[in-house]
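Predict the 3D structure for this chain.
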Amino acid sequence: MIKEQKFPIITNYRWYDISNLSETDSNQLQDDFNFTPDMISYISDRHERPHYDYDTYTHINLLVYDVPIWPTQVIKHFTAHPVTFLISEKNIFTFHTESTSYVFDQFNDLMMRRELAKAQDVTELLMKFLLFSSQYFQRAVTQLDDERNLLDKKLSGDINNRDLVELSNIEKSLVYLSSSIQTNLMMLHSLKVSELDFTKRACERLDDVLIESNQSAEMVKISQQVTQTLSATSNNMMNNNLNDTMKFLTVWSLVLTIPTILTGFYGMNVSLPVGHSSSDWIIIMVLTIILMVWLVILMKRHHFF
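Done. Predicted structure below.
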C-alpha cells in the first residue's frame, strides 16, 4: 500500500511510505514515478544486502539499509532485514515489510513528524531516517548484553542445556548484527561519492550516522569477545565437571573390584586357604575392607582424586 505521509508544517519534499509492496503498487510506481523493473526487483528482494545504486536514466537514487529484527518464537536469535529508500527529485520513498515496520511506526507521533519536517531538503530527511534506524542496533546489543550477564551469573552454579542454547543464540545474534553493521558502513561510505546532492547539514547528519554505526560496530565487537570468553569458560567448566565425574566413577570401579575378586576367589568349589571354619567370612570381610581402604589412600596420595 502506497501512502503519502503528511507533515505538520509545509516542506519542499514529499514522503511516500510503502508497506508490503504488492503487484498493484509496483505498477503504480512504474507508471506514476518512472520506476524501472530493476529497482522494483531490488525493493522486492528481502535478502538484498545494503548498497547504494543510481539509475542514470531516471536519476533515481536507491539505498538498501539493514535493520535488526528481534527474536520470535520461530527464530530465537536476532537477524537483520533490509529497508529500502528511493529518492526521486524531491520525493523520498520508504519500503518496508511487516517485520521492519517498527522503524517507521515511531514517526506516527506528531512530535516525531515535526522533528522530521525540520530537514531542509530530502537528503537531510534521508539522513534522519538512517540515524534513527542505526540506533536500533545499539538497543539490540544492549539487550543481548543483559541476557548474557544473566547467563554469566549461572556460571557459579550448574549450566544446563537450555542455558547453552541461549548462549548459542546470543552468539548467532552477534554474528548477524556484526555482518549487517559492516555492510551498512560500506554503503554509508559510498554515499560520500554518490550522485546525491548533499547540503552541509545533510553531510553533518551523514557523519552522525557514521559515528553511530561505528559505535554499534565497536559494541558488537566487544560483546562478541565477552561472549566468546563466557562460552569458552562454560565449556571448560563442563569439561572439568565431566573429568570429575569420570574420576569418581573410575575410583569406585577400582575400589569395588577388590570385593568382587575376593568373593569370586573364595566362591570357587575347591580347597582354599582360610576356608575351613564358619567364621572365616569375617576374616575375608576384614581383608576386603583393609584392601579397599589401602587402595583409596594410595590413589589419594598420587592425587588421582
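The chain has nine helices and six strands.
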